[in-house]
Structures are given as structure tokens and as C-alpha cells.
Write a structure and sequence with these properties.
mainly beta; Jelly Rolls; single chain; about 220 residues; Immunoglobulin-like
Length: about 220
Amino acid sequence: MYPHRIRLRGPWECEPIAPPGGAAPPARRVTMPSGWIAAGLTEFRGQARFIRRFGYPGRIDDGEHVWLLGDGARGCISVCLNGRLLGDNPSETFAFDVTAILSQRNVLEVMVQGDADEVGLWGDIVLDIRRDAYLADVAVQRAGAGLIVSGKVVGIAPQALELYTLVDNRHADYRTIMPTTDGEPFHIELADVDAASQTVRVELICVSSIWYVVEAPIPG
């Protein structure tokens, strides 16, 4: 079942960068998630490079892709892997397909602009192993006594994929969908959903293999 997730937590290296004519505190190790204060940089204003070294993530088969995901990266100004720039001034949440640039020994560098104590890598940085197609932008909202589940299926597939929607692990909707590289949207309206229901689960299936799963809480 996909995705397989590998969280890149500790230890990370943190290298504060001295501004022109100024000084910077010494490099140190930090455990993620970490904000500017937790990294011991309260008195420092400037840029810091957060570095995580990791090995190749096991065996990657044909049809599998490795994505680098970041969440809560406040003040992030660049993301590099093995010396290659992945994103310049990305948003707090980012996603990059890094399959083609992985090696046996990898170096991830996240540059953060520390102009306030609130910046830092507050969320998880993960490797996300996916199939050729996956779910994206899945959202759940209430609509009267029912729910609207929306999102898109991104990627390629040899045939239409099956899309199952479950509410609290009970079947609620089934349809087929053909993914596209730009993302094929879906909009599912579920009527008369129990007001006490807690979770929606969306499964993307190719034949008998689950290609991607997203679980989302139902808003109150």
C-alpha cells in the first residue's frame, strides 16, 4: 500500500551563515521538527543551512517514485538535494520528485532566512514513495447533512483506476478515473452522512494494488 513514508528527523546539522562583516554562532546538531529557538539561534538573525544526510531509500522498483515533501517550512528560501536546486523560495509546504537525482549517499540542504523566532522547519520533512499516479489536494467539507470530497489524481496509468471513498471505514462511493499529468479532478457528493462520523478515507486502486491512500478528518 502506498505511500511509504520515511521521516527525516534527527540528527540534522545546522550551519548559521555569518553576514558580511559579521559573525555567526557555531554549527550544531538539531532534531526535527525544529524552530529557530529550538535550534539555539534566538540571538542570531541571518541565514542558516539545515543539512540532512541519508542513504538510498531501499529498493525502488519500476513504476515507483520518490518524492521529497516538506510541511511547515517557515522562512525557507531554498531546497537543494545533492547540489541541485529543487526550489527557490518555495512555500511552507513543498513537494519534489527526486527519483532521478538520488544516490547511495545523499545530502539535503534547506536554507532558512532567520528574521524572526517563528521561522524554522516546524513540520516533517519526509521521503514519500509513490506509484506512477497518486492523490493530491484531497479536501473534505460539510454540505448540509452530507459531505463533499474533492481532489485530483495526478500521474499516468495503463488504464482507468478505481477510486473508493469510505466514511469511518464504511463504503460510501465508487467510481473510476483516468489520471493526467496535470491532475484529473474529482468531486464526490455524499448525502445523509452520520453527523458523528469522524474520518474520510480515499483509496486509489490499480487492479488489486492500492496506489495511494489519503485519510482526512471530517470538519466539525
